[in-house]
């Protein structure tokens, strides 16, 4: 085999450089693909992101069974203006399906003077129904467009946003 001319070596070198850049960019673009967040997963199941407070560190989801867990670095508590006090344990668990969170563990609401576990959330059109087992209440989905922040809810920092959680005027027995 005859040695390659300088021009042929230059073309070959240029080809190898361009080829390696294509290979590197295609492999790096697949490595850069964004892993969905817990908030993205909620959206996939027809829930607004605001049912989870800011600060989820990670989550586990088994798409085959719907079993999930979401993780915070500590217990997260906050009040919603003129409404409820909520508490999320460092790990919350349950079963998620389209428009339904069932078997919830780790989320509670203060009713009068005691904390009660929220055991189910279901979506019916533009209403989210929250169940504590023996009773429940419905709220418009648009109340949950923004995620509350641990410690201060939706009224944080300079924003001083005041949101009264609108509710349906009923509490139903399950």
TrEMBL record:
SUPFAM superfamilies: At5g01610-like
InterPro entries registered for this protein in UniProt: At5g01610-like (IPR036758), DUF538 (IPR007493)
TM annotation in the entry: none
Coiled-coil ranges from the UniProt annotation: none
Keyword terms: Signal
UniProt signal peptide: 1-25
Protein name: Uncharacterized protein
Biological source species: Turnera subulata
């Amino acid at each position: 085999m005859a040695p390659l001319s300088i021009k042929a070596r230059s073309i070959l070198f240029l080809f190898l450089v361009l080829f390696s850049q294509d290979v590197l960019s295609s492999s790096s673009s697949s490595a850069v693909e964004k892993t969905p967040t817990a908030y993205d997963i909620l959206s996939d199941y027809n829930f607004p992101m605001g049912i989870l407070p800011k600060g989820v560190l990670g989550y586990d989801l088994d798409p085959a069974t719907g079993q999930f867990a979401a993780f915070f670095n500590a217990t997260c508590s906050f009040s919603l203006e003129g409404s409820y006090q909520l508490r999320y344990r460092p790990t919350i668990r349950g079963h998620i399906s389209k428009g339904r969170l069932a078997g919830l563990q780790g989320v509670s609401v203060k009713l009068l003077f005691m904390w009660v576990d929220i055991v189910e959330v279901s979506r019916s059109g533009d209403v989210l129904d929250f169940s504590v087992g023996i009773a429940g209440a419905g709220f418009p989905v648009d109340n949950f467009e923004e995620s509350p922040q641990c410690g201060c809810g939706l009224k944080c920092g300079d924003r001083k946003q005041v949101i009264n959680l609108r509710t349906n005027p009923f509490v139903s027995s399950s």
